[in-house]
Design brief:
With 240 residues, the protein is an all-alpha fold.
Length: 240
């Protein structure tokens, strides 16, 4: 099968991008960052204080999301008065929560993922508990990109294999390529720690679904194009 890699590393490869945000959130957060940059450019004649003040009074959930992202990363480019915006995790959380309260559940998926994976959130009280709450909220409202992060809590923090697999299957059923690839990996290797028996048929089935998924994430695409997978496919063809 594939060159063996620890399951924890597989989760990291699949779930994390360079900014330590789970890969299944990558397009989502990228869109927000792009829109934030566009809004900042469009309001280039305003100071950041004016821009932030206007956004903070809005009841548009996307505006709250923009503010959450601004405070998550800060803005290093000075405004017309030479001011910058410093990153502020507590303010970022505040505006993520505002967006969630305005029924934007993509914000719940992103905030839950940040609590779980972003090292800047390590000092937050009850970090994993909060991550679970927001990820569950996202999944219950149809944001299936959150299933992989939620499953990692069940599998590795709570040791609840049944709930973890149930969550991964839910994601896979709803076209989450990361969930499909994680299931492929778990079945390809098996796991004594998780009491998962090796099942090559299921492993191959989920691998095919992940790699043929038209909506697969960049990291799943990279994994499916790797030498390990390509060599495996060649070996399978030669066996026939």
């Amino acid at each position: 099968m594939f060159k063996k890699i620890s399951l924890f590393v597989i989760f990291q490869i699949i779930l994390l991008n360079a900014a330590t945000i789970p890969n299944s959130m990558e397009n989502m957060i990228g869109s927000v960052n792009s829109n934030t940059a566009q809004m900042t450019e469009e309001n280039s004649k305003k100071t950041y204080d004016e821009l932030i003040n206007g956004l903070s009074k809005s009841f548009d959930p996307s505006h709250a999301m923009y503010l959450a992202t601004i405070y998550l990363n800060g803005i290093s480019e000075p405004d017309i008065e030479g001011h910058i915006v410093k990153a502020d995790i507590n303010k970022s959380i505040k505006y993520f929560e505002k967006s969630i309260n305005l029924n934007d559940f993509k914000s719940a998926a992103m905030l839950g993922s940040l609590y779980l994976f972003d090292s800047r959130f390590d000092t937050q009280k009850d970090r994993v508990k909060k991550a679970k709450y927001y990820l569950n909220l996202a999944v219950k409202n149809g944001i299936y990109e959150a299933t992989t992060a939620l499953a990692s809590i069940y599998l590795y923090y709570e040791k609840n294999t049944n709930k973890g697999f149930e969550t991964l299957y839910l994601g896979a059923k709803n076209n989450n390529s990361s969930a499909q690839l994680i299931l492929a990996t778990l079945y390809a290797y098996g796991s004594k720690d998780l009491n998962v028996s090796r099942n090559i048929i299921l492993g191959n089935s989920f691998l095919e679904k992940a790699c043929l998924n038209k909506k697969k994430t960049k990291k799943v695409e990279e994994f499916c194009s790797s030498d390990n997978v390509l060599n495996y496919k060649k070996n399978e063809v030669n066996k026939k």
